[in-house]
Each structure stands twice: as C-alpha cells, then as structure tokens.
Amino acid sequence: MPDAATVSGIERAAYAEPEPCGAEQVRQAYVSAGNVYAVIVQSRAGGVPAVPFRQTVVLQSQLLG
Length: 65
Fold this sequence. Notes:
Elements: E1 11-16, E2 24-33, E3 36-45, H1 50-64
Antiparallel strand pairs: 1-2, 2-3
C-alpha cells in the first residue's frame, strides 16, 4: 500500500493470489485496529484489479481508525 494511504493506528497486510490462479483470482487483506480485526476478500474471474482493491482496504482502514 502507498505511504500516502496509511491510517494512524492501523496495521495492514495484503496478499494477492499469484499467477496462475485458475478461474478466479483472490485478493485478501487483514486490517487491525487495537483489538478489532477485519478481513477483506475480493475474488473475480480473470483477476481482481489492484486499484479498487486498494481503495477498499484504505476505506475500511479509515472506518476502523
């Protein structure tokens, strides 16, 4: 994730299923704020676009922060 998209007090880890990924690609992110944890999972045939996935992770991080 870009440094400009960081949220204070939030820890994040994101993973993308590597090629070849089969019929669907899966991207997942783990977000923690104190004792609250969130898991974000997106899957799509042909691949999950990186930018919408990053936007989702940043927005969810802001909601937890």
